């Protein structure tokens, strides 16, 4: 993917942990021929003229990179350690070759410990071994920078633990608030997102769920934060693209795999 003069966001995947279509399901959405209803597991790619970042590495990460033509990532950031956000971790190794032997990995302390336990082979400093993943851990405790991008992490409730949401700023402006896998947006997170050009919100389905937002809850949060545009992600097969968007406000849309925003 060629560098852009903008702050570009590409949705690598927008589906919940099952993906859409879901194995063994014959519902209307799983049988849909609309490509926007074909959802790999959730991840995004961010690119500025000088910096490129991956947020989460789902099971479909290799397929996503090939589809979008990704050839470089300067770092990867993790929201949490659930399998549908991390199990493509080993496919990061190609970026180590491109970067000259290593790749910075950013996560909270708890998530980093989980990654190091599960993927211990990647944290051993094997930078001289060809085709080997050499992950360099960076634990964030507050705002941090990667290249020309400023990143503010915020805590979001997700069942029995918190995930990390992120507000990304570039050239002095908040470009993106990325809040996936959450059941609410606390006031501190809402304040951090205020003024962002785009808000991305977790939205599983219409019916209540203990660890994810519903469509109606997400719309209320979007109105509360009042960004220019909101895109919903982490979508289940309960939400057909066309039918769901017809019920949404004009400034709230469904994200879909391959959607690219220039901010």
If you had to describe this structure to a student in words, what would you say it looks like?
The protein has 263 residues and is an alpha/beta fold. The chain has one domain (8-262): Metallo-beta-lactamase, Chain A (4-Layer Sandwich). The chain has helices at residues 61-68, 83-86, 93-99, 109-118, 187-193, 215-225, 241-245; strands at residues 8-13, 43-47, 52-55, 75-77, 103-107, 135-139, 144-146, 149-158, 161-170, 173-179, 198-202, 229-233, 252-254, 260-262. Strands 6-5-4-3-2-1-14 form a seven-stranded mixed β-sheet. It is globular and about 50 Å long. The two termini are 17 Å apart.
Provide key terms for this protein:
single chain; alpha/beta; 7 helices; Metallo-beta-lactamase, Chain A; globular; 263 residues; 7-stranded mixed sheet
In short:
By secondary structure, the chain is an alpha/beta fold. Helices cover 20% and strands 28% of the residues. The protein has one domain: Ribonuclease Z/Hydroxyacylglutathione hydrolase-like (Metallo-beta-lactamase, Chain A), CATH 3.60.15.
């Amino acid at each position: 993917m060629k560098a852009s003069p903008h702050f570009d966001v590409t949705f690598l995947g927008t589906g919940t942990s099952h993906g859409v279509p879901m194995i063994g399901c014959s519902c209307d959405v799983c049988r849909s021929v609309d490509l926007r209803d074909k959802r790999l597991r959730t991840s995004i790619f961010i690119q500025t003229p000088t910096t490129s970042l991956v947020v989460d590495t789902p099971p479909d990460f290799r397929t996503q990179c090939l589809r979008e033509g990704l050839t470089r990532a300067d770092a990867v950031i993790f929201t949490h350690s659930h399998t549908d956000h991390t199990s493509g971790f080993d496919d990061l190794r190609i970026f180590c070759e491109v970067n000259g032997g290593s790749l910075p990995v950013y996560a909270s302390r708890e998530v980093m410990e989980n990654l190091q336990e599960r993927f211990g082979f990647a944290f051993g400093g094997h930078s001289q071994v060809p085709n080997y993943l050499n992950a360099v851990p960076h634990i964030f405790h507050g705002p941090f920078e990667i290249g020309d991008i400023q990143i503010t992490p915020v805590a979001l409730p997700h069942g029995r633990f918190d995930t990390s949401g992120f507000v990304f700023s570039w050239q002095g402006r908040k470009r993106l608030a990325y809040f996936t896998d959450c059941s609410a947006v606390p006031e501190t997170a809402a304040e951090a997102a205020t003024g962002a050009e785009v808000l991305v919100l977790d939205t599983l389905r219409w019916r209540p769920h203990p660890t994810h937002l519903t469509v109606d809850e997400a719309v209320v949060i979007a109105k509360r934060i009042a960004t220019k545009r909101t895109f919903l992600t982490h979508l289940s097969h309960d939400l057909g693209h066309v039918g769901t968007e017809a019920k949404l406000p004009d400034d709230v849309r469904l994200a879909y795999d391959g959607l690219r925003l220039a901010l």
